[in-house]
Design brief:
98 residues, mainly alpha, two-stranded parallel ribbon, 27% helix, extended
Length: 98
Amino acid sequence: MPAPKLVFAIGSCAAGGGIWFDTYNVIGGAEKVLPVDFYIPGCPPRPEAILYGVAVALGLAPKQSAPVYSRQEFLSFVESGKLPEEFASSREVVTEAV
């Protein structure tokens, strides 16, 4: 095969063994057999996810990820009533106990 080669682990089973990860005949994900460049999650992975993973690998789409907030940061957002920009379009914050 001509170089460069890209290896994708598509789906939960290829990425980590899936629901059978701890059985005697499964050694884990595909990375234990050959080096994996890109992981596409899902069980089963959606076609859009596969296309997006290939586009990211080829440099055709920017890699996106959701911001990660600690519990304290999130609670401070809730107490103040002001959410970060990525949540601004969602529902209003309810600060009262139900």
